[in-house]
Amino acid sequence: MMIMWRYLRRGMSTSTRVRALRRSWWDHVTPAPKDPINAVTEAFLADPCPYKINLGVGAYRDDDGKPVVLQCVREAEGKIAATNFLESTCAAISSKLVEESAKLVYGEDSDVIKEGRFAGVQALSGTGACRLFAEFQRRFYPDSRIYMPDPTWSNHHNIWRDAQVPIRTFHYYHPDSKGLNFVALMDDVKNAPNGSFFLLHPCAHNPTGVDPSDEQWQEISSLFKVKNHFPFFDMAYQGFASGDLERDARAIRIFLDDGHLIGCAQSFAKNMALYGHRVGCLSLLCDDKIQAVAIKSQLQQIASTIYGSPPIHGMLAVSKILSDPDIKAIWLKEVKDMATRVQRMRATLKEALEKLGSPLNWQPITNQVGMFCFSGLTPDEVDRLAKEFHVYMTYDGRISMAGVTTKNVDYLASAIHEVTAFDQDGKILHTVCA
Ligand code: KET
């Protein structure tokens, strides 16, 4: 600044002065690191190849590879379009959304619902719900950390980092077995300081597709009780693991039965295919109604300073779907259909790789659940898939199974077989089962 004023005093022209001032404001701003998932979409869009495949972002696609508008959403939109909403009715419907969302997670007949022992707010999809909670955690437990699984959805790290909550990871995935590293996970839970915050994926873990069994969840919950840890569940794929929303809530119900106070971020981006509408919910269980009122007001206050209030259109549709029994029945069937299509593609991809004589073990494709398959493909192999075969996925080898269709699955299998069995010069890479 001092140097600049010296220049100004020496009689620079006005435009030079303005430019000097402008340069000084933003010179230090460099490009942010690319988001690993959005970077895949960008590379895919820039590729002119007609048979390219996008297996990056975890958003549902139909068997033609197209985004879907679910029938339940069409029905709900038909009903809400006829109504003229006043501000007060929107607030009431937002509360309805929160109540119905909480029922999905904690159970229609659960005591927390009957007694109103939860604080919930509408949130900007799953990301917004996580961000609100991270901010809440920092405000009310400023010295706490968050423990998250290794690996986890890449944005979890950014969200808690931006909220200035220190991050620790806990063991989760075993690359050799391509399954859960349960022993190491339990050790990490045990060794964390008592009263730590833990981020858990209740079903369809992203990116691994590996979930603990009910018995393992039970053990985790019991250890959380002993250690007095706080479980925060990020529920972005309810319905996608098993096709049944109740079944996919079982991990949370196990914790609930053990008497934990729980936090939960919910997203309707995938299970209602409403990605662009940003509809979600954050709920925190409380000891009583008085606590619930206080916590809700704090969450609302955090939201109001960041974005005011959330958009209403998607919220109206989701509220309608959840509260109208006929439309809800359509939705439950559609969730089942989406999950079944993804499961079918898992089986088909595995079979196709085996038919090609791939020497690798592809069993994990069907053992894993949810939207993703953590394939074990290396960054080099992922790179070759994009450059030689126009198949795009994140560098950690995560395949969004929602992008696999009956039309592209054979091509995908041969591309994966090529990059895993042969090097770029056609030399054989593997001869025995890995
Ligand atoms: N939690 C998890 C575990 C998750 O995978 C996502 C999105 C979100 C929260 C955020 O969801 P939303 O409701 O859209 O805010 N994951 C996929 C999409 C993305 O990154 O945007 C993905 O991993 O591809």
How many strands, what sense, and barrel or not for the largest sheet? 7 strands, mixed
User: Distance between termini?
Assistant: 62 Å
CATH class designation of the largest domain: Alpha Beta
- Given as residue ranges, the uncertain stretches (5+ residues, pLDDT < 50) are 1-5
- Overall outline: globular
Percent strand equals 5-15%
The CATH homologous superfamily of the largest domain is called Type I PLP-dependent aspartate aminotransferase-like (Major domain)
Bound molecules: ligand KET
Category by helix and strand content: alpha/beta
Rg, alpha carbons: 24 Å
Number of strands: 13
Reported by name, the CATH topology of the largest domain is: Aspartate Aminotransferase, domain 2
Mean pLDDT: 92
Q: Please report the number of helical segments.
A: 18
Helical amount: 40-55%
The figure for the number of domains is 2
EC number: 2.6.1.1
Cofactor: pyridoxal 5'-phosphate
Family: Belongs to the class-I pyridoxal-phosphate-dependent aminotransferase family.
Function: Amino acid aminotransferase important for the metabolism of amino acids and Krebs-cycle related organic acids. No activity with D-Asp or D-Ala as amino donors. In plants, it is involved in nitrogen metabolism and in aspects of carbon and energy metabolism.
